Every structure is written in structure tokens, then in C-alpha cells.
Amino acid sequence: MSGLRLTEGSRGLAASVAVEGAPLTRTQVPYVTGSSVLGMKCADGVVIACDTMASYGTLARFKSLSRMHQVSPNCILGVGGDYSDFQQLQTMVDAEMTAQYVANDGLTLSPKAIHSFLARHMYHRRCKVDPLWNTVIVAGFDKGEGVLSLVDLFGTAFSSDVLATGFGLHLGLPLLRNAHRPDITVAEAKGVLEDILKVLFYRDARTNDVVQLASVTAAGVEIGKMTKLKTEWGYKSFVEGARVGDDSSW
């Protein structure tokens, strides 16, 4: 085979095909990326939260992009990583949900089934060495209880009472574990997640102070409006910085 040949009218492919004969690929290096997504399972549902910034490298390029996507009346996705791959995930999941609807067999994908579907697709892409550069938190409510699961770009999939992606995996997850209780309510969890997002805003250069929270309960999915965090930069340790012998971490 002579391979794929580019013509004058193939300019759209030029960015994806580096040399003659190379396969058509998607994102190989993330360019526009989102940072942390947080999730907590509650007694009466699930809450997820994230900021609304997408960075172009180290540039805070887009400051009001939602990184949440409602899949069904009882399931929502929170996605970190490459934003264009997130859009591809949206298209793929919506197409699967449409196919289920068109089948008209009375069946719908549960949150656990959606998580399994994503895990298999992400592992398939990983095996092709053409991954979707995302970490996805799946939040849902099914059979009277909350569902909180995660899948990454390798297809690694698991469920937990608290989850985090990005920088939040390192700094936010311990705070989530300390705050979680089996009887915590959705209302309480929203306050906890908002406080942790504030900590991440102080510490993560790829985060902004505009955040979005969403909950999934027996009543369905509720995605909140983008809101601005109330922050304080006048603390003494913030202004003066770290000194030998003090408790500042700066």
C-alpha cells in the first residue's frame, strides 16, 4: 500500500497526519486542559464539583467552560483533562444513549452501565495507543443509592465514596476523606466541596475561582450555576511569605 496521500483539499487532515502512511489520530498531546474534579457519595445522593477554567498550556485561556455533562435523568459526568477529548466523549456517550432510545425496548443505561461502557471504550483507545486524555467521574443515583465511579485514560475503573482528579487527587482527596461520613447529606457535601475547591484555587495554578457544583438524588440531576468563590488573600502568611520556624507552607 502506498499509504495516505494528502491533497490540496486535505488541509483538515494535515494537523493529524504527520507523514505519508501515518494513521489518522486524535489528540496525542493535550493542549487545552481542565484540572480537578471532586466527588462525594452522600446518604441521599452524590455531589460533584469542579472549577470552570481550561488552560492552554500554562495560559489561563478559557475561564467559564463547564466540565460537566448530563448523560441521563439520573447520571452526570465530571471530566478533567483535554477539553477536546471531553467533547469527543460527550458525542460518543450521547450517540450511545440515542441508540438506546431508538431501540425503544424499555431499557436504559444505568449509571453503573455507563461507567462500564466508558471503561471499555477508554481501555480500547489505550490499546490502540490513541487514548482520550481524560479522567472521568461518573455520578448517578440508582436503586435508592448513589453511584460514584471513576475511569481514567488507561481504562482503569473503580468506585469509591470520595473521588478526585488532577491536582485534587493529591491535595483534595485527603480533605474529602476527612470530611466524609456515611450519613453526610447532599447539602453538607456541597459546602465541603466548595471549601476544598477554595483550597485548590489557592494552591493550583491551573484553577480559577469560578466553580460549578452538581448533585444527583432521587429527584434527578441538578447542575448549579457557575459561582465565584469568596476568597481572602490578606492573611499574614500569604503577604509575608515563609520564614524559618513559622508554620507557613509557602
From TrEMBL:
Name its cellular compartments: Cytoplasm; Nucleus
Keyword set includes Cytoplasm = yes
Q: Name one Pfam family in it.
A: Proteasome
One GO-annotated biological process of the protein: proteolysis involved in protein catabolic process
Which UniProt keywords are present, listed alphabetically?
Cytoplasm, Nucleus, Proteasome
Recorded family membership: Belongs to the peptidase T1B family.
Protein name listed in UniProt: Proteasome subunit beta
Whose protein is this, by species?
A: Porphyra umbilicalis (Purple laver)
